[in-house]
Amino acid sequence: MQRDIVYKFASFFIMVAILVGVDQWSKYEVMMKLKDAPAYPLIDNVLYFWYSENSGAAFGILQGMHVFFYIITIAVLLGIIYLLFKLPSDKHYYPLLLCGGLIFAGAIGNFIDRIIRSYVVDFIYFKPINFPIFNFADICVTVGTFVLFLCLVFVYKENELEFYKK
Question: What b-and-e string marks burial along 56-71, b requiring 16 or more CB atoms within 10 Å of the CB?
Answer without folding.
Answer: eeeeeeeeeeeeebee
